[in-house]
TrEMBL record:
Gene: nasA
Name of one Pfam family that matches: Molybdopterin
Top-rank taxon, per record: Bacteria
UniProt source species: Amycolatopsis bullii
Protein name according to UniProt: Molybdopterin oxidoreductase
Transmembrane segments: none
PANTHER family found in the cross-reference section: NADH-QUINONE OXIDOREDUCTASE SUBUNIT G, RESPIRATORY NITRATE REDUCTASE
């Protein structure tokens, strides 16, 4: 095939690249301006790797054996029908992924609710963006990670990044921060913090108190944008009744960040002509994640930033289609267009598009963590189908999840490699990957992108859309209800999203092929899209943004004598998510071949550990083994581990599954642990 312009398979920056076969060339696209990170440069290796799955497999006498597609799909359909007959529609569950295209996410939600009739569907984006989404909806009435183009950041005087490390997670993003006065909030001295003029390092789980302290400094310093608050917001008084008690000196005692630095951050933000407050996983992945993001939004509102060209609040989406993946139906409570499943009008409209009775659609189901915990239980699903996720590595309390998968009557996994989750399946279905199919994704700025097919998949491989179509037909659905062609699916998605918050009805493949920059909402075919939201009004009925009262409560779990340290987790430059893809690429795996634990040298030596030793990191839930790395800049009571590795190296063996009450996000970012030698552990 000729050289094809497409997009990177990894993060939500969705850098532009061109493919000539499997050879990658960076492309001059706004978000990356001709740059790529190591993962992007090596992404072509995924297309030719020797561990590619090319035939369906069925577990026979404990081993996976190759079978034909017809046999595999017939077998899966019969098993699903039998389990539904015995246990009802909710006896079958679906688990999706934030890397699936919009078309796949849409058809997966439709398949669950129409072909299976189950309410039990959620996806791994619940662990990435749900707290920011919930906070954004509360404050603005709509959730689009960044409601402005990435390139707007270049005009900023000051940018505050809270819980974000783009220098490692999405390196091309950092070019948009050049020339800005950067404030970074992170417990660690990350590569991003090294770029900052001001690094605020709060104790893990205290970001909310820090945001309250800075907001207090804004008000006490006379920097509150009173006219903006009066004209464009509501709820300031109720919010301030809590924030008024968080003077910087009080916040200092909780966070460890000096009151002087809080006041300096407030002055920098207030003194800027253009300023942005940006958040990411470090603020979200807590049992108080929604409230914590809400506190940073309150700070941005107090300065009059959101809805003003050249300034604003935004969230850095993580997964490649983390934005679009949550807009079109694979979340437990979502219908296409970012409609709510419990909204009668939304149910009627979408049911009409699907040609079914709204009364027959199931209601909202369990969130991701709760869904996995329910597997195989008395009132839980007995079968699970997984598309685009590797929950054995990525889920909190991952050994528990592995045990729950083993308790199922039936597990089906669609993937292009034998991931740790696929290796446990009763049926494995080999599917196409990013460059072998057409499809759309929505990047971190709400821009809808066409990722084009650049090469033919190996013989024997089918797309996820083909899989869903084949199964739907076998489950008795009409031939035309589940199309397998991506553009045909998108045409239906357009209609299903029309009138919703995330309105794609004016988007078409032809417009995308022509290179139009279309940021949703795009409510008509002659509409130019909405690169900057909220300039005239916010999405609440009265057009005003909401200050939301939030109070600091701290981590769900505190250190004690048995577990005296705090652990936090995150990503490294060379790997992505569960590592199922990047661990297969030699150039990346040679740099970071195994899990490690960053620890202050004094802390390590008190535990009897030297640099390079294998250490046991243990919590109340489990333990993991990792190689010791001395990090002088780390706080003595803190350790850091990446979460990309399998087996005994899984960081999520010990993380805390405590859930945010609103978003149902687990507390990945902080838990109490002990550190010891492997041989000396109890």
């Amino acid at each position: 095939m000729p050289q094809v312009d497409t997009h990177c398979p990894y993060c939500a920056l969705q850098c532009g690249m061109s493919l000539d076969g499997a050879r990658v060339t960076p492309r001059d696209f706004p978000v990356n301006a001709g740059g790529l990170c190591q993962k992007g440069w090596t992404s072509g290796s995924l297309l030719t790797g020797p561990k590619r799955l090319t035939t369906p497999m069925l577990r026979v006498n404990g081993a996976l054996e190759p079978v034909s597609w017809d046999f595999a799909l017939d077998f899966v359909a019969r098993k699903l029908q039998a389990i539904r007959a015995e246990h009802g529609p909710d006896g079958v569950a679906i688990f999706g992924g934030g890397g699936l295209t919009n078309e796949k996410a849409y058809l997966l939600g439709k398949f669950a609710r129409v072909a299976l009739g189950t309410s039990q569907i959620d996806y791994n984006g619940r662990w990435c963006m749900s707290s920011a989404a919930a906070a954004g909806i509360k404050a603005f009435g709509a959730d689009r990670g960044m409601p402005f183009p990435v390139t707007d950041l270049k005009s900023a005087d000051v940018v505050l990044l809270a819980g974000a490390n783009p220098a490692e997670t999405m390196p091309p993003f950092t070019q948009h921060l050049r020339g800005t006065d950067l404030i970074v909030v992170d417990p660690r001295r990350t590569p991003t913090a090294e770029l900052a003029g001001l690094h605020l390092a709060p104790a893990p789980g205290t970001d909310l108190a820090l945001a309250l302290g800075i907001l207090h400094a804004v008000v006490e310093g006379g920097h509150l944008d009173q006219s903006y608050v009066d004209d464009r917001t509501s709820g300031f008084g109720e919010m301030w009744r809590i924030a008024a008690s968080w003077w910087p000196e009080r916040a200092e005692r909780v966070t460890g960040v000096s009151a002087a630095d809080m006041r300096l951050a407030a002055e920098k933000l207030a003194g800027a002509r253009n300023a942005y407050v940006l958040t990411a996983r470090g603020t979200e992945q807590h049992a108080t994640g929604t409230a914590t993001v809400g506190a940073w939004i309150n700070l941005a509102l107090s300065l009059g930033l959101p809805g003003r060209k050249g300034s604003g609040y935004g969230c850095l989406t993580g997964q490649g289609n983390g934005q679009g993946g949550r807009e079109h139906g694979q979340k437990a409570d979502q219908l296409p267009g970012y409609r709510k499943l419990d909204d009668p009008a939304a149910r009627e409209y979408v049911a009409g598009v699907w040609g079914v009775d709204a009364a027959g659609l199931p209601g909202p189901g369990r969130s991701a963590t709760e869904l996995l915990e329910a597997l195989g239980q008395e009132n839980g699903p007995k079968a699970l189908m997984v598309f685009g996720s590797n929950v054995v590595v990525s889920a909190p309390r991952s050994q528990r999840v592995q045990d729950r998968l083993a308790s199922l009557d039936f597990l089906v996994v669609a993937d292009f490699v034998l991931s740790e989750t696929a290796a446990l399946a009763d049926v494995v279905l080999p599917v196409t990957q990013w460059a072998e199919e057409d499809g759309t994704l929505t990047n971190l700025e709400g821009r809808i992108l066409l990722r084009r097919k650049a090469l033919t998949p190996p013989p024997g491989v089918r797309s996820d859309l083909d899989v869903l179509t084949g199964l739907a037909h076998r489950l008795g659905q009409p031939e035309n209800r589940f199309p397998a062609d991506a553009e045909t699916v998108f045409e239906e998605l357009r209609i299903a999203s029309k009138g919703g918050i995330a309105d794609y009805s004016g988007v078409s493949y032809d417009r995308l092929r022509a290179g139009e920059a279309l940021h949703w909402p795009v409510p008509a075919e002659d509409h130019p899209g909405t690169p900057r939201m909220f300039l005239d009004a916010f999405a609440h009925p009265d057009g005003r943004a909401r200050f939301v009262p939030v109070e600091h409560t701290g981590p769900a779990e505190l250190p004690d004598d048995e577990f005296p340290l705090q652990a936090t987790t995150g990503r490294v430059l060379q790997h992505y998510q569960s590592g199922a893809q990047t661990r297969l690429i030699d150039e990346l795996n040679e740099v970071v071949p195994e899990a490690f634990v960053e620890v202050h040298p004094d802390t390590a030596k008190r535990a009897g550990l030297e640099e390079g030793d294998r250490a046991l990191v243990r919590s109340r839930r489990g333990e993991t083994v990792a190689r010791v790395r001395f990090t002088q800049s780390l706080k003595p009571d803190l350790v850091f581990l990446p979460f990309h590795f399998p087996g005994e190296q899984r960081a999520n063996l010990f993380t805390n599954p405590a859930l945010d009450p609103v978003s149902r996000m687990p507390e990945f970012k902080v838990c109490a642990v002990s550190l010891s030698t492997v041989d000396g552990a109890a």
